[in-house]
């Protein structure tokens, strides 16, 4: 049985649309914790895609120089086991992490996410996770797009059930859903 960590640490979920400011809000929250920050980047660099490299560079420029950065495109569970308190992990982003593992079959994906959820509940670290909202528009016309949308939506809901607070960033505002919403059963 997983032993739940004491309530003195925080698991924070920041979700929202593209370019809504969710990463900046997560960075602000990390700075407010007054702990050493380890920024976990899930993006894979692609020198053949200058626009993608520009997005990565924008994120890098905003980070304070004393933040440690780890590029973890696949095994998020491993870093949860390897870092000790008093650090804060800022994981940006779950959508990119899900996209990196789309080739996994459903059983393997379930094992990966079950391990992540278990480690999130037992780690003593403060963790801030950034996730993109999907599924608020048209159903993707291709199977891989639907798999991505379904996997990310399900993961956000599962993490949202154990995180507190959960923020929705939209229109340049951060809404604390833990204060104004109710957790679904």
TrEMBL record:
Residues that, per the record, bind GTP: 16-23, 41-43, 92
Catalytic residues in the record? 59
GO terms of molecular function: adenosylcobinamide kinase activity; ATP binding; cobinamide phosphate guanylyltransferase activity; GTP binding
Q: Which family does it belong to?
A: Belongs to the CobU/CobP family.
Q: List the keywords (alphabetical).
A: ATP-binding, Cobalamin biosynthesis, GTP-binding, Kinase, Nucleotide-binding, Transferase
Name by which UniProt lists this protein: Adenosylcobinamide kinase
Q: Which Pfam families match?
A: CobU
Q: Which GO terms describe its biological process?
A: cobalamin biosynthetic process
Report the catalytic activity.
adenosylcob(III)inamide phosphate + GTP + H(+) = adenosylcob(III)inamide-GDP + diphosphate; adenosylcob(III)inamide + ATP = adenosylcob(III)inamide phosphate + ADP + H(+); adenosylcob(III)inamide + GTP = adenosylcob(III)inamide phosphate + GDP + H(+)
What is the annotated role of this protein in its UniProt record? Catalyzes ATP-dependent phosphorylation of adenosylcobinamide and addition of GMP to adenosylcobinamide phosphate.
Judging by the UniProt lineage, the source's domain of life is Bacteria
Instruction: Read off the Gene3D superfamilies from this record.
Output: P-loop containing nucleotide triphosphate hydrolases
InterPro entries, per the entry: CobU/CobP, P-loop_NTPase
So, what pathway does this thing act in?
Cofactor biosynthesis; adenosylcobalamin biosynthesis; adenosylcobalamin from cob(II)yrinate a,c-diamide: step 5/7; Cofactor biosynthesis; adenosylcobalamin biosynthesis; adenosylcobalamin from cob(II)yrinate a,c-diamide: step 6/7
Concerning NCBIfam families, the annotation shows: PRK05800.1
* PANTHER family in UniProt: BIFUNCTIONAL ADENOSYLCOBALAMIN BIOSYNTHESIS PROTEIN COBU, PTHR34848
Top-rank EC class of the record's enzyme? transferase
Give the EC number(s) listed in the UniProt record. 2.7.1.156, 2.7.7.62
